[in-house]
Write a structure and sequence with these properties.
By secondary structure, the chain is α+β, with helices and mostly antiparallel strands. The protein is 43% helix and 17% strand.
Length: 106
């Protein structure tokens, strides 16, 4: 089964992360990793109620990290951890994240 996370910044920049041969991240560790990054990167809840859904957390972390974290080889380890966490937290093998549109599909 195909396993991939793609993070895009519109039509011009798309960064696919192939997870086919990568050790899956356990669900609880994925959620903890996203929680930590949400805090470290200074993300704020986007809903007026303050509730942070997993999809919102993934979008906020990607946006706060910025395109460079997905593009640059120096951040490849972080980007792969993000891809593994997003896939595991959503329990979906294929995830597409469009940062400018605040859209996530699987």
């Amino acid at each position: 089964m195909r396993s991939q996370v793609t993070v895009s910044w519109g039509d011009s920049a798309s960064y696919p992360f192939d997870l086919e041969e990568v050790q899956p991240m356990p669900h609880d560790l994925a959620r903890a990793w996203l929680d930590e990054q949400f805090t470290v990167l200074g993300c704020d809840p986007i809903r007026p109620t303050g509730k942070v859904l997993t999809a919102d957390k993934i979008l906020c972390v990607a946006e706060a990290a910025g395109e460079g974290f997905f593009r640059d080889a120096a951040h490849r380890h972080w980007a792969m951890a993000f891809a593994r966490a997003a896939s595991a937290a959503l329990a979906k093998p294929v995830v597409s994240i469009d940062v400018p549109r605040h859209s996530l599909s699987y």
